[in-house]
Amino acid sequence: MPQPLLELFPASLRAVLEQLPAPVKTTLEEIRVRENRPLEIGYASRYSFVREDGALSERGDEAFVPSSEHCRALLERITHHSVYAVEEELRRGFVTVSGGHRIGLAGRAVLDKGAVAHLKDIAGFNVRVARARVGFGSEVLPELLDFGAKTIAHTLIVSPPQQGKTTLIRDLARCISSGQWHHPSAIGWGSRKVGIVDERSEIAASDKGVPTFDLGPRCDVLDACPKAEGIMMMIRSLSPEVVVVDEIGRTEDAEAIREALHAGVRVLATAHASGLADVFARPVLAGLAADGVFGRFVLLSRAGGKVEHRVVSADEAVREASRRFGRTIGATPRDAPAPSPAVSSAEPVPVTVKTRAMPTIRSPAPASHITAERRDGHD
Questions:
Q1: I need a labelling partner for 72 at 20 to 30 A (CA). Which of 183, 191, 205, 286 fits?
Q2: Where is the composition biased (Low complexity) (predicted)?
Q3: 243 within some domain
Q4: Do 263 and 143 lie in a common domain?
Q5: Cα–chain center distance at 35
Q6: Are residues 340 and 269 in the same domain?
Q7: Structural domain of 192
Q8: How many C-beta atoms surround the C-beta of residue 265 within 10 A?
Q9: How far apart are the C-alpha atoms of 34 and 56, rounded to whole Å?
Q10: Which of 26, 72, 27, 73 is nearest to 46 (CA)?
């Protein structure tokens, strides 16, 4: 666990976490602190309760139980002792701290004209540990290339939460910004100008506007900026060749993505969905898919502690959606057995995808130290 993140916790709670086994610390994904309830962690695609001596247990009655004082101290630390300074974050239900770690909050919602104004009586925290996985993108990027335009195809990365979408999109941005295409036919393409709209401050983990993660030499970041507005700001003033956004799903997101498309900008985005069936069931995503906006879909899943991916073209995605296989609504629990697909007797619903010619991207001649392709395919 990164030391700056560990130091956010009050001393007695920190002492418990410091005693976690070393293999657990290196694979730690979540720390769940709930007032007067057992301390829980997620690691390597598993969940366990944590005893006071740092040992793991499957029994909640053996676990360390954070008190109201622990929760109050943790809230003060993550808000820098000023809840009002992070009022907007409280309204959205999370606070992003230095390093790109997102802390989800649970408590009592305060409403204003039927909308959530902010949270109070906060008694639950989900600390999500952000890590850069350099090299993750090199495994996927060769399947996303548009060889005619010498750049990346419009791509949507899809998975339930905690499958690695943000980690992947971060490393893909680094590869594209560095001109590391990891394909022998792409040697000499050069790097591309990448613009990241980092609404939740997770992709770049910017500190006073400066990214703390390695995103390559030709990358600009709009930190804590709403996606739709940020995409338009990028197009108007920063002339990106590839725009990167995380967790799209609103109508205004789709409209901004279409504007980027018409401006000749490639889009690399993520969305929450358990599979292609969910993509075509969500109106905003289905509209983008049906319009042929995305040339590739990347489906992420976990097998044990490893993240696996499958790349599907736009035509393949439509064919899969039209077959109407049995579909699970929502995310599947990590320990659930793999379902046996059952073909529905219903007639396939025809789905069509509109296609359009994409403009060629022109970039300045790359410097030799940026475009040199590594033979081993790794950084």
A1: 205
A2: 341-351
A3: yes
A4: yes
A5: 28
A6: yes
A7: 136-371
A8: 22
A9: 17
A10: 27
